[in-house]
Every structure is written in C-alpha cells, then in structure tokens.
Design brief:
homodimer; Methane Monooxygenase Hydroxylase, Chain G, domain 1; 6 helices
Chain lengths: ~200, ~200
C-alpha cells in the first residue's frame, strides 16, 4: 500500500510539472485500489487483534499499523486533490516556471519513503530524520504562498491559476504532515518514545 | 474531549465573525489540553486492549475510539488554523459581510455534535444523518470559493483577506470530513456496516 501511495504522490506532481495527462489518470486509477487496500488491511489488523490477543510489542505494532494505514489512505486522497488542480492547470498557460513545487515535492517524496522504510525496519533514527524535514516543508509552503500572492496582486488574470498552485503546495504539506504522523508512530514503536505534540523539543 | 473540541470549533468561528480576540485566545489555550487528552485516551485504550483482550463488540469499540480520538485531535488543530486566520482578519477592514461562513459553520457544528452523540448512543440512524450533510458542506465551500475569487479579481487589494477566508472555509470543510469519518466508524460499530469509500450508495 505504501508503494502505491508513493507512486500516486510522485505521479501527481509529475502530471502537473510535465503537463502529463496520462500520469494524472494513473493517480485517479490508483485511488480505488488504495481505498480497497485500506479496508482490507484494517479488517486484517482487527482480526489479528481479536484472534491472537497480542501483548506488548505486537499489540503496539498492530495499533500503529491501523493508524499508518489510515494516514496512507488520506495521502492517496491528497494526491488526487493535486491531480484535480493539475488537470485544470495543464489546460491553461503556465503562471510561472515551476521550481519551488518540484523542490517541495522532492522533499515530501523522501519523507514518505523514509517514514515507510523506518516502519518496515523499525528504525527510530530514520523516523527522527523525517520529523526534522517537516519544518523545511512548511518554509517552502510559506515561500510558495507569498510568491503566488505577489503574482495575483500584480496580475489578477493569474488569480485562479495561482490559487490552484497554492492548493497544490498545501496538499503537499498535508502529505508531509501524514508522513510526520507515521514517523511519530514508528518512533513510539521502535523506542517507546512518545514525541507527539512535542515538536519544540525535537 | 469531544466537548472541548466542539467548544474550540465554535469559538474559532465566533472569533472571526464577531471579531472577538478573547474567543481566539480560548481556542489557542484549548489546543494543549486537547493534545494532552489525545495522548491519555490513546494510552488508556491501548492499555485496555492489552489487559482485557476484548473480543468482538468491545474490540470494535476500542479500535473505533482510537480512530475517533485521532480525528478529534485533528479537528482541534483545524480550529487553531481558523483562529490564526481570524486573528489576521480582525485587524483589517472586512472584505464582505460574513453570511456563508456562519451558515457553513452552523452545519459543521451540528455534524460534530451529532457524530459524537451518535457514538455515545451507538445510534446508526444519527450517524447516517451526518454523512448526508457532507455534500451540503462541500457545496457551501465551493460557493464561498467562487464568491471570494470574484472579489479578488474585481479588487486585488482584497486578495490576502479573501485568501484567509477561503482557508477558513477549507478548514471548516476538513472538520466536516473528520465528523464524517467518525460517523462512518459509528455506523460500523452500531450496525456492522462498512460505508467507507462508498459515498455513491449512501
């Protein structure tokens, strides 16, 4: 499921940046598959809980899996949101060369890949790296916002397209937030450390 | 926890509509309390899973509680997002009289209250009502978006303020999405019906 979601996120930005409608269709097709996997994984995890009544480490693993499954499904939805904006944008002239969004997307891709790798390997160190990237993503989102508001003010004909790009950046940021949630669950799983809501002490 | 989150959502829109900075501070103060409750409830639910190894209905209740707890915490975050926009907006002249946002907020408030009541009473009928409101919220969000884009195009000096209002509507919509998630969990709990990702058959 992680692989399909990673692919959907990458293809959604590729559709936008390279004006590739086929890539956009890939993402729309992946949604049904992601939704189906979410239900199956959830049912399977709850069945395991019921049948095997796991203790301590195994129980913690299963409750983490239930949460991560939910995060992944929402990341898939956010990739679909990006593609909806992309499909509108690729039918219009570009507002500006896209530089910040690809840069932001590269960072988000690596967060998604690393939080999933960290989960598979129960690697707390790698999970911690994901938490550290979150601030950089927020900074890029703010820079993109400010730049596009500038475009809108100078040239009101760019308003709708600029708004679409602002929402793409916002969706990427929300994907990064879900990767952060997953990394927090992995840290708890790997090291028994609860880092939720203590961003200040990271 | 539901009560505190409901209060935060209501106060966030009240802060915006009535330009009430004290209400905004209420919401900012509630965030730490919501975060703390999320951790306590989550720990408690996992402890119950481990100690009592519940079967069938009780297990389903606990896994639903873990998810709902997570949804409530995110709804609290979204109320904080609204307040951040409100604090910026109440220091500037209004773009327009706020009519649609209070209307949307009233609908969202009732969804939040009803999904929580439905959970407490395990009332599938009430949960189904929440699902039915979600489309009306999306329609209001789209109407607000279109109207504000119109303002931005006609008068570029309103761009920043209009964007803030667009994000308020977006945050309200996301709160409604979380209420919908909770209602889906309640339906599953009350009637064993899995309605996720089958909006078309509602």
């Amino acid at each position: 499921m992680g692989g399909v979601v990673e692919f959907a996120i990458r293809q959604s930005v590729h559709a936008l940046v390279d004006r590739d409608e086929a890539a956009a269709q890939d993402v729309l097709r992946s949604e049904a598959r992601i939704n189906q996997m979410e239900i199956e994984i959830d049912d399977f995890a709850v069945r395991l809980l019921a049948r095997h009544q796991p203790m301590a480490k195994d129980l913690r693993f299963l409750t983490a899996a239930i949460k991560i499954n939910n995060d992944l499904e929402r990341m898939g939805d956010l990739a679909v949101n990006i593609v909806e904006r992309a499909l509108s944008l690729i039918r219009q002239p570009p507002v500006k060369p896209l530089i910040d969004i690809p840069q932001m997307s590269k960072l988000v891709d690596s967060m998604v890949r690393n939080c999933l790798d960290a989960f598979v390997k129960r690697d707390g160190q790698m999970a911690r790296g994901v938490l550290l990237s979150d601030d950089a993503v927020d900074d890029l989102r703010d820079a993109i916002y400010e730049e596009l508001v500038g475009f809108m003010k100078r040239d009101p004909t760019t308003i709708s397209r600029s708004l679409d790009l602002i929402f793409v950046a916002r969706n990427l940021e929300r994907i990064a937030d879900h990767a952060t949630n997953i990394a927090e669950d992995v840290l708890f799983l790997a090291q028994g450390i609860d880092v939720r809501h203590h961003a200040e002490s990271r």
